[in-house]
Please model this.
Amino acid sequence: MSIYDHLIHANQLDNIIVVFSDRSGQAKNLDTITNCLGLKLASTSDYADESTSCSAAMSDADGVYIEEFDIAVLKSNNEQSSQITSLTNNPDIESVEPDVIMTALSQLDYLSGLKDGLYSGANAAITQMRKRLTDANSTSEEIPHIPVNTKYENTKMATWGMQAINANTSYSGRGIKVAVLDTGLDLNHPDFSNRCLVSKSFVSNEDVQDRNGHGTHCIGSACGPLHTATRPRYGVAYDADIYIGKVLSNSGSGSTSWVLDGMRWAINQGCEIISMSLGSRTRVGQGYSPAYERVGRRALEHGSIIIAAAGNDSGRPRYREPVSSPANCPSIMSVAALDEDLGIATFSNAGKDPQSGREVDIAAPGVNIFSSWPLTGMYNSISGTSMATPHVAGVAALICEKYPDLRGTDLWQHLTRHAEPLPHSIMDVGAGIVQCPL
Amino acid sequence: MKLGQKKRYVITLKEHNDGDIAQVISSLAACGFTVERVMDDLGIVTGITQSNNIHVVKQIQDVESVEEDTQMGAQ
Model:
């Protein structure tokens, strides 16, 4: 069963996108839909007034034909799913795919918004979805399929996050250097007593000891132990070398100067993975920081990958905020957060800047994440794209161990190509949920 | 003339200048920019100056961009 079929069965789709070939005209295309499916479509050519809402146009029909792009957006209907799938055999139709665009634009009221959104994103989205479908079919033996209706729970053996990324592999991150740039680590935590730790503080008048908790939690998710005395497994790369760069103070904030210094240190230490669960809010159209982009690019050139949190400024479903800085840099991998249903976390930011072309690159567990915490509590469950980011960093370490020649840009591509696609907009979850190598 | 508020800035230099950063440092100092950190391997300089001095800093040869040092927070 293909991912497409899963989506249909799970009733996750609101709409289906049909892309016609260039050679067929509007009249023929509309006839194709009517004859094959018995559906009546509205056409954008019928709505000269661009203030007409898409939803209004669709309310009186079974879908909308967008003349400018030779694309039809059909309302999904389980009874017609097999007929819709059969459209793929029609020579005038290039593809039939889940409506990833409509999900992203569902909060836009106007047809002009739909057109703009399709114009800027449809080709990339459709190409990517097609590639994902191809990849998923061709590598189905390598990538375990995650049913879209999965509900994960913490067990005695492993947290829900470890289960969702398939952390139960033979790889441990041994020999790989993972830097976590954050509030430091509780150096007295027993779960890290036997680990290789290298540390440096870039915060004025503060040592590496974490008196906040955020850094200890993030390091736990990325590199926590395989076994604890009484708790489930919560760390991915349990045998990796841990490089602790304190760039955020014990109050949980820090300057760009400190962060840049920490990034430079991690690159020069030869860390293959640099995890940054930090950021600052951005506005749509703001663009990315040239300084962070410079460091991100240099990191890739030196065989390091920088992975950063997409940010927690959204309040879904009411509003979605753009990806934070520095995760919005093209050369820094941005990570969105998922909940236990593999839904998008309500706070998780989205790729919304058409000028920079930035999107979320990948997603990982980020809600109710159990991990290490400074002593007295020892453990804690918290939420954020901060929690999703070290999951990706840990997986990257396992991939580095499995493939010694895969670093930098190649590692980036491996992470995204082997992520499991999700039935959400790529603007929200990128390539999908990160997956450990088998 | 008001000097403007003192702020910390991050300056990114043009790529080709990475090997010859001394001249830029000298020019920055000459226009009242207090250099704090030089990351010559990255082509990045951080430091402090008055906010109304930034338009002068941006005119220095081989300066690609000038950004205010943004506060980062745990996410």
